[in-house]
Amino acid sequence: MIDLSIDSKGYSMMEGFLPEHEVADLVNFVEQGFPADCRRGGVRNLLDFPRMRLLANSSEILRSVEAILGDGARVVRGILFDKTEDANWKVPWHQDVTIAVNERVEAVGYGPWSTKAGVLHVQPPASVLERMISVRLHLDDCPVENGALRVIPGSHTNGKLSERLIQELANRSIVVTCEMQSGGALMMRPLLLHASSASSLPGHRRVIHFDYAVAELAQGISWKEFQA
């Protein structure tokens, strides 16, 4: 069940969100459905794969997302993260501030622009990010030793922050480590300050990450993944 205090905390943890048989099916798809050379560390543009788009649009996930964002929420991006001994990393404190779009149009509040895995990305105004939610589905147990996400509750209410302010806030705030079991889902606001350490365990830390939005973009700019 969703913790509706997500509006104040910026995140909600739901254990047992995916049944064991679906986790096993997804692990099998990840291992068999992607070429090994492109899977190292993860896969961008996850919604290019029908199996992943079907998952993102499942009634269980959309019901949870719409409980927070309201009717009309749609998936706008999908990424697979996979920490292993050969692809291991730590992520410093940051906010998720870029979105995937179809075309570049100069508009107030949009920028800088970048390209990731052949897809155009831009930083939109905070008002767009505030009408988004991310869903992280854990395919492996994720204790602190396996690079569990760390968050600063309530930090999403500060808008988009500079690197200096991010570090200042991280230095003086209470940090929560979001340890999750396989099948658990973590829902979070993109502007929530979060970080993770490299994994110190053998094996995988596979997380399927979907972004959802209800916000309209500036005229001439459209979400890459919005589909009627």
Outline of this structure?
This protein is an alpha+beta fold and 228 residues long. It has one domain (6-95, 131-213): q2cbj1_9rhob like domain (Jelly Rolls, Sandwich), CATH 2.60.120. The protein has helices at 6-9, 20-33, 36-39, 50-56, 59-69, 126-129, 163-172, and strands at residues 11-14, 42-43, 74-83, 91-94, 99-100, 113-116, 119-122, 132-138, 149-151, 176-178, 185-188, 194-196, 205-213.
Explain the layout of strands and helices.
Elements: H1 6-9, E1 11-14, H2 20-33, H3 36-39, E2 42-43, H4 50-56, H5 59-69, E3 74-83, E4 91-94, E5 99-100, E6 113-116, E7 119-122, H6 126-129, E8 132-138, E9 149-151, H7 163-172, E10 176-178, E11 185-188, E12 194-196, E13 205-213
Antiparallel strand pairs: 1-11, 2-3, 3-13, 4-12, 5-7, 6-7, 8-11, 8-13, 9-10, 9-12
General description of the model:
The mean pLDDT is 90. The protein is an alpha+beta fold and 228 residues long. The chain is globular. The strands form three sheets. The protein has a six-stranded antiparallel β-sheet with strand order 1-11-8-13-3-2. Strands 4-12-9-10 form a four-stranded antiparallel β-sheet. Strands 5-7-6 form a three-stranded antiparallel β-sheet, with no helix packed on it. It has helices at 6-9, 20-33, 36-39, 50-56, 59-69, 126-129, 163-172, and strands at residues 11-14, 42-43, 74-83, 91-94, 99-100, 113-116, 119-122, 132-138, 149-151, 176-178, 185-188, 194-196, 205-213. It has one domain (6-95, 131-213): Jelly Rolls (Sandwich).
